[in-house]
Amino acid sequence: MSTAKRVLSGTVAAWARIGVTMVSQILLVPIFLTYWDLETYGVWIAIQAFINILSTFDRGFNDYLEFEFLKIGAENKAEISALLYSAFGAMVVIGLAEFIIVLGLVFGANSTSWLFNTTSKTTSLTVCLAVVIQWGTWTLTNGVGMFTRLMSAFGHYHRMTWWGVLIAAVSSIAQIGPVVLGGGLIEASLMTAVVTIPLLALQLLSIIRILQREEIFYSRPALSVGIHRFGTSMLLSLRYFLDNFQQQGIRLFIAPVLGVVSLATFSTTRTSANVILQGLTTIAYPIMPEMMRFLHQRNQQKLEMTFDTIWFMVIAVLAPAIVVIQSVGGLLFHEWTRGKIEFNPLLFASLSLSVLVYGFAQVAMAVLKGNNLLKKQLILSLCASATLLGMLVALLPTLNLFGAGLALLAAESMSAFIAISIASKWLNQHQLHWPRRKSQLVIISLLITAVGLITMSSWTEYEWQIMLGTLLFLAVNTFNYWKAMANETTHAIQQTMGRYIKNVKGHTYNL
């Protein structure tokens, strides 16, 4: 397969994975809430957050190894084989140690009663078994995942991504059967494992055939080398852990303080906002590699064009969409959750604003990531996590879920501020500059949206009038932004969106 075809296939697969995530998030919620009570659903979410947090260092290790495999190069087969099997040997040892730790955490000292806010002994035992089953499934997934990371070095990223799409889709569908048939946490976890493990085995067989074809043979593991590499990956894993804390760790705070029912409300409301985030990702994903290239070329004009494309989508598409969704969110949310979860407009507003701030800051984050400013990224993550933790302690007991939403918004805003400060300084040091005027217009749109969402949530009797006024102000600011862009940039945005729509149609047809 040619390079162009591999890149296209990998891009389509990445979009398909986003699509699977969006569809599963949207469709599974009403199914769970139809057949499970709210507390069971909340515990299910807490378990997944628990697994996600604990697995951060494993994922960081695998990502580190992928970068190392790419650096070594496909032609250095002996060196790749030595690193692969040494790292795998270390992963087996570390995996066993992690499994023992997980057993101690869930079965010892009544940890489930405070971690998952369960009181019944039967419920606690059920939770413990579900955690063990899901962690065991993750351990096997992680083991195969190390080999999939190697495939990128041999040009098989696209194939492994499609395997990921298949496994994600099938494992999501598998959860439906036990739930509909009256099963609980253990049955849903078991069914997910039953369908995932055979797929992992088939994927591993596919990888083994590629390894044989590429002449990557077994090499005796050097455990000390693997452990050393794991230690080296800890800096990357720590940054992942801090970033993941904002996504999943907050759930482990909400469950003990407010209960699993409140956790279910928070997570389901956040799912709605995450769908908007996935929409932003589908737009930004194809543009990011081009932005990286322009950064390294020190091409201010083309770099600014990529900035404009993403920012214009944020203020012209996402911001108005969020305002409209806020006005109809209550009705849609009631139907979607089968009336079991009450729509919290202030919570939804704060989560939606977090998504907008995140979208605004992506161009600055691209500067940091594209230049491997790892220490700067770690400092950013530390500050954002500290902000989130401090705001949670201060606001969660008094403002409940709205306090959690505000804490996330504050953390995202802190992250954006630091990222923009660092990116602006770096650009100035490398004969480039941060487009201040246009970034100020984006901030104005964010403020307009924030005022509109808060007033719509506070004065619901004037909701539609406020919505129309907010959309009008957003339109005026968007027009000002359009005028601030060069003609070449506006033309490029039109062409980019045209190609994007054409590609999406073509990809949908091919799938």
Topology, please?
Elements lengths: L2 H33 L2 H17 L1 H17 L4 H31 L3 H5 L5 H31 L5 H18 L1 H5 L4 H29 L9 H10 L1 H25 L1 H25 L3 H10 L2 H37 L8 H26 L3 H56 L6 H23 L4 H22 L2 H24 L1
Helix pairs in contact: 1-7, 1-12, 2-6, 2-11, 2-12, 3-4, 3-6, 3-11, 4-6, 4-10, 6-9, 7-9, 11-12, 11-16, 12-14, 12-15, 13-14, 13-15, 14-15, 14-17, 14-18, 14-19, 15-16, 15-17, 17-18
Number of helical segments with 4 or more residues? 19
| Radius of gyration computed on alpha carbons | 23 Å
Residue share in β-strands: under 5%
**Sheet of most strands:** none
What is the terminal-to-terminal distance?
A: 18 Å
Low-pLDDT parts are 504-511
Instruction: Please bin the fraction of helical residues.
Output: over 70%
How many strands?
Answer: 0
What class would the helix/strand composition place it in? mainly alpha
| Average pLDDT reading | 85
What best-fitting shape do the alpha-carbon axes yield? Answer: globular
Order of helices and strands: HHHHHHHHHHHHHHHHHHH
